[in-house]
Amino acid sequence: YLALQLTELNRPMVVALNMIDVAERQRIIIDTEKLGAILGAPVVVTAARSRRGLAQLASALETVLAPRGDSIYERRAPTVPLEIDAQARRVITDLDAALQTQNLRFPLGTLLWLLASDTARLPFPPEHPARISVVAHRARLESNGAGSFNRLLIEARYRQVDAILAAVLDLRTARADTLTFRLDQILMHPVWGFGVFAITMLALFQLVFIWAEPMMHSVEWLMGQL
Q1: What HEC string does the chain produce?
Q2: Which site among 15, 50, 115, 211 is 20 to 30 Å from 83 CA-CA?
Q3: How far apart are CA 27 and CA 39, in angstroms?
């Protein structure tokens, strides 16, 4: 979700796909080349705990930021588009055109933020023409009720996420993390989970009020001696 929001800002970007060791242990297959092609940005697999992939990540960053026209790392929009209804697309296009007449050019991500965020957070003075334009176009979007565009945008992004995952994720050989799964079977159980919680809280209170009492007396004795 965050990666998609960043792609909408149309800035040079490298995606670090971290915890790849966990994915491999669970036999989850991720097509990183395809993911990079969809996002329009290189994807580097990393495992931060073991420092795996950090050199490749640094190299990819240098390549992306280098002032040269390498078509492999040329910034481009995601191939899976953000699917929102025709009326919303029209409003976004109209707002973009209105702001451009004021010599203001913003990427898609900024336009979406202007239309979806709280009016009080708009980065324009009260009587600024850009603020007036944004408020007017927001009114067109909110005709279905306050916050409707924000909900529409969130739902559209999650649909985009689902479509990308379906394209790059292979779970046919996946298996659960055995230890975590077994612990969850107990800790998240509607009955045994409450029992574990009660025992844990009892132990915590015992630790604070009873087991810690000798240490408290020792500290008091030491302070008295001092």
Answers
A1: CHHHHHHCCCCCCCEEECCHHHHHHCCCEECHHHHHHHHCCCEEECEHHHCECHHHHHHHHHHHHCCCCCHHHCCCCCCCCCCCCHHHHHHHHHHHHHHHCCCCCCCHHHHHHHHHCCHHHCCCCCCCHHHHHHHHHHHHHHHHCCCHHHHHHHHHHHHHHHHHHHHHEECCCCCCCHHHHHHHHHHCCCCHHHHHHHHHHHHHHHHHHHHCHHHHHHHHHHHHHC
A2: 15
A3: 23
Of 144, 209, 165, the closest CA to residue 38 belongs to 165
Tokens of 183: 């612990």
Tens digits of residue pLDDT in 100-142: 999 999 988 999 999 988 888 899 998 999 999 999 999 888 7
With the C-alpha atoms ordered 97, 102, 103, 106, is the resulting torsion angle positive or negative?
A: negative
Is the Cβ–Cβ distance between 27 and 15 less than 8 Å? no
187-200 per-residue burial string, b: 16 or more CB within 10 A, e: under 16: eeeeeeeeeeeeee
**Is 170 in contact with 29 (CB distance < 8 Å)?**
yes
163-210 pLDDT, tens per residue? 999 999 999 988 876 777 788 888 999 999 999 999 999 999 988 888
pTM of the shown model: 0.69
